[in-house]
């Protein structure tokens, strides 16, 4: 039960900068996901929180206490490794009892804790089994139990589901979220899988190239990406972005998208923000799910290059100098080569400054 | 009785295995293709063994003027084996071999484990020290024997160093004193074979998953606790293998020792290998030699089987670990 604050956190490995600068507050009892492509610095951040690596600069505070110089065994951090790092030469019971034993707790106290945690995680019937032969979901529970038994202030999870096959991952996700709710623990979860982050986290910190891009609830990050990277990274497929220039039309401010045609007029908020921002070159963005496909006429013009039918939905790839994707119903009638017109839902349109890549947002 | 039963059961289970779609033609081809190897194995392993067993039951000696296959003429009804039981020189040699084993193997093991643990961390000059440490293993045993022969002379460098350290003129005749000669031989063995043990144990320690060590640290284990609860149990199999190798090797200790002391003074450093060598080349009673060698072979085989079993167990255990990680 701890608030974690990262202040101006920096990490260099020789010439390589893994983390440029990071400020983040993880609230008490919160499930925070650090999300980003590999090499974005999320694991480095996590390792520094755990104390496995020393920061090159900045501070890590647990409830206001500076953790600099506190060895990893003394931080009260529970760590669940990617491969769970279960001590396979021990039984389940020995694994669970490891932490308390190393801290020199009394035998009766160890037994009491092992019993409680095993009951809680439904590991009681397995206590005397060798842990080498357990299935993955039990390994996950055991890994969490082994950390939880010493009552850590926070839990750090390093991509625990990346070794699990896709079908089972959904089960593990549910179970993990469920456990977090029960423990009411502050958890930091590192992942490159946005689905895991979206489904489990209370808030997501999106990172790229050692820079924190955006922090927010899953829906905030999805609906209002702070910049082009987040817009593209979140969502499957990511947000459509088409380069264009702001243009005044007789129906209000719109974006001239070149060969695509001119966009429908922007909403008043967005138009005001765009005028205030001053720059003319923008990226016009909308979610593939929030556009409708119609026959040629109104809307943006493009040619269909590929049609992906995935059952429930159809992903239509379109192109007109630049490419975009539209998610339509499974009964959409179009084939490769058709010229279609695309009408983005007005409230779903987002604008990004082409130079700074930052979002242009209405008040 | 039970052996025949087992055989019968094996024979009974064979047809079910043969029911697999391997036709007779390809089985015959397989037999033909492996025939040269099978003959080779027969020739270099099975045949000498049977020959040894045969000769060990006779009083045959190359001086008899009788070819070895006619050794049955001096058939002696296991007299070699009963003689062996009463042979005090044999028991003495066996005892000394055990003493060397009981001193050298633990000493080499502890030294090697300590060094291997040190070498897990990085320190300046690690590579150079690593090369230096492995050097003794590369020295030809005969050369090592001569080296130690010179070192332990009464006017040699070993006494020189001790003299310099104590400030007294010490002239111990190491290799002429029955007890000290044995000590000198042991020092030479430890010097030469600690590196091998070090190499094996280091390989084991490096293979301990780093995540597990980190997990242990995060759970509050200090260095000593990590060493005894994670590292040692994880290299248990490798430890057993390293120990088995050295135990078997000590049974065969010969070259370095023979050059240093020739088994002397008297029989003070005579090990079973030296004894066998002397009986073979000086006394020339080869029937007896065959019996001794067979007994040693059986003892070593039991040790080797034990080591193999551990290795198998390790392989299976390792596979389970990997499966767990991948699943």
Describe the overall structure:
The complex is a heterodimer of chains A (363) and B (327). Chain A is of the alpha+beta class and 363 residues long. Chain A folds into two domains: 4-86 and 134-223, Rossmann fold (3-Layer(aba) Sandwich), CATH 3.40.50; 233-360, OB fold (Dihydrolipoamide Acetyltransferase, E2P), CATH 2.40.50.140. Helices cover 26% and strands 34% of the residues of chain A. Chain A has helices spanning 42-50, 92-102, 107-120, 136-148, 166-183, 194-200, 218-223, 228-233, 268-277, and strands at residues 4-13, 16-26, 31-35, 57-62, 65-66, 77-80, 154-158, 186-191, 203-208, 211-216, 240-249, 252-256, 281-286, 291-294, 300-309, 313-320, 322-329, 339-344, 350-353, 359-360. In chain A, the strands form four sheets. Chain A has a six-stranded mixed beta sheet with strand order 6-7-8-3-9-10, sandwiched between helices. In chain A, helix 2 packs across helix 3 (107-120) and helix 2 packs parallel to helix 4. The two termini of chain A are 36 Å apart. With 327 residues, chain B is mostly helical. Chain B has a domain at 88-284: MetI-like fold (Orthogonal Bundle). Chain B contains 14 helices and no strands. The longest helix of chain B has 41 residues, at 286-326. Chain B is flat and about 70 Å long. Residues 1-18 and 318-327 of chain B have low confidence and may be disordered. The A-B interface holds A 50, 52, 72-74, 77-79, 81-83, 85-90, 98-99, 102-103, 132-136, 139, 146-147, 150, 163-164 and B 209, 211-212, 214-222, 225, 229-230, 233-234, 236, 317, 320-321, 324-327.
Defining traits:
heterodimer; A: 363 residues; Rossmann fold; 2 domains; six-stranded mixed beta sheet; five-stranded antiparallel beta sheet; B: 327 residues; mainly alpha; MetI-like fold; 14 helices; 76% helix; 0% strand; flat; disordered N terminus; disordered C terminus
Largest interface: A-B, 32 and 25 residues
What's the β-strand tally of chain A? 20
Rg of chain A, please? 25 Å
CATH superfamily of one domain in chain B: MetI-like
Q: What's the architecture of one domain in chain B, going by CATH?
A: Orthogonal Bundle
Rounded mean pLDDT of chain B is: 82
Number of domains of chain A: 2
| SS-based class of chain B | mainly alpha
Low-confidence sequence ranges of chain B: 1-18, 318-327
């Amino acid at each position: 039960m701890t608030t974690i604050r990262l202040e101006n956190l920096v990490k260099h490995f020789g010439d390589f900068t893994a983390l440029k600068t990071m400020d983040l507050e993880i609230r008490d009892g919160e499930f925070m996901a650090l999300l980003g492509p590999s090499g974005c610095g999320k694991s480095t951040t996590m390792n520094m929180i755990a104390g496995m690596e020393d920061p090159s600069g900045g501070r890590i505070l647990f409830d206001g206490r500076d953790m600099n110089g506190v060895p990893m065994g003394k931080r009260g951090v529970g760590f669940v490794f990617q491969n769970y790092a279960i001590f396979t030469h021990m039984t389940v019971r020995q694994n669970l009892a490891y932490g308390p034993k190393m801290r020199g707790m009394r035998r009766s106290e160890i037994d009491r804790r092992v019993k409680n945690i095993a009951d809680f995680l439904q590991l009681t019937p397995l206590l005397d089994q060798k842990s080498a032969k357990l299935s993955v979901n039990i390994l996950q529970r055991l890994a969490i139990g082994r950390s939880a038994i010493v009552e850590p202030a926070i839990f750090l999870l390093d991509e625990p589901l990346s070794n699990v096959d896709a079908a089972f991952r959904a089960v593990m996700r549910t179970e993990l979220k469920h456990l977090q709710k029960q423990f009411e623990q502050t958890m930091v979860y590192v992942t490159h899988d946005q689905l895991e982050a979206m489904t489990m986290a209370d808030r997501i910190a999106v990172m790229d190239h050692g820079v924190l891009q955006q922090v927010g609830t899953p829906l905030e990050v999805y609906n209002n990406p702070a910049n082009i990277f987040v817009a593209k990274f979140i969502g499957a497929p990511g947000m459509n972005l088409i380069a264009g220039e702001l243009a005044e039309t007789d129906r209000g401010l719109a974006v001239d998208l070149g060969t695509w045609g001119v966009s429908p007029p922007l909403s008043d908020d967005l138009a005001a923000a765009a005028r205030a921002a001053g720059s003319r070159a923008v990226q016009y963005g909308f979610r593939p799910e929030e556009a409708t496909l119609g026959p040629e006429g109104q809307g943006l013009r493009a040619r269909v290059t590929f049609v992906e039918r995935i059952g429930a939905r159809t992903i239509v790839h379109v192109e007109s100098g630049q490419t975009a994707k539209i998610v339509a119903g499974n009964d959409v009638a179009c084939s490769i080569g058709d010229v279609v017109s695309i009408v983005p839902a007005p409230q779903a349109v987002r604008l990004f400054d082409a130079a700074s890549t930052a979002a242009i947002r209405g008040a | 009785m039970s052996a025949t039963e087992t055989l019968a059961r094996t024979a009974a289970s064979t047809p079910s295995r043969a029911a697999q779609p391997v036709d007779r033609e390809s089985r015959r081809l397989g037999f033909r293709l492996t025939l040269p190897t099978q003959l080779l194995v027969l020739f270099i392993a099975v045949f000498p063994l049977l020959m040894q067993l045969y000769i060990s039951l006779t009083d045959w000696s190359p001086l008899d003027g009788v070819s070895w296959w006619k050794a049955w003429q001096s058939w002696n009804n296991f007299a070699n084996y009963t003689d062996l039981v009463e042979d005090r020189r044999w028991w003495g040699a066996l005892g000394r071999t055990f003493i060397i084993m009981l001193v050298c193997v633990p000493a080499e093991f502890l030294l090697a484990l300590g060094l291997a643990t040190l070498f897990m961390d990085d320190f300046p000059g690690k590579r150079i020290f690593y090369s230096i440490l492995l050097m003794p293993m590369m020295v030809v045993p005969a050369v090592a024997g001569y080296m130690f022969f010179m070192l332990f002379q009464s006017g040699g460098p070993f006494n020189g160093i001790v003299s310099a350290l104590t400030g007294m003129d010490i002239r111990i005749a190491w290799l002429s004193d029955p007890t000290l000669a044995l000590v000198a031989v042991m020092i030479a063995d430890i010097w030469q074979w600690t590196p091998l043990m070090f190499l094996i144990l280091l390989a084991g320690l490096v293979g301990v998953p780093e995540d597990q060590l980190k997990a242990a640290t995060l759970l509050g284990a200090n260095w000593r606790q990590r060493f005894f609860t994670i590292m040692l149990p994880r290299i248990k199999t490798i430890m057993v293998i390293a120990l088995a190798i050295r135990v078997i090797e000590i049974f065969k200790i010969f070259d370095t020792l023979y050059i240093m002391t020739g088994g002397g003074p008297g029989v003070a450093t005579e090990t079973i290998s030296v004894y066998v060598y002397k009986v073979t080349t000086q006394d020339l009673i080869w029937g007896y030699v065959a019996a001794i060698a067979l007994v040693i072979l059986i003892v070593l085989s039991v040790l080797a089987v034990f080591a193999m079993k551990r290795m198998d167990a390790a392989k299976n255990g390792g596979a389970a670990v990997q499966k767990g990680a991948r699943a």
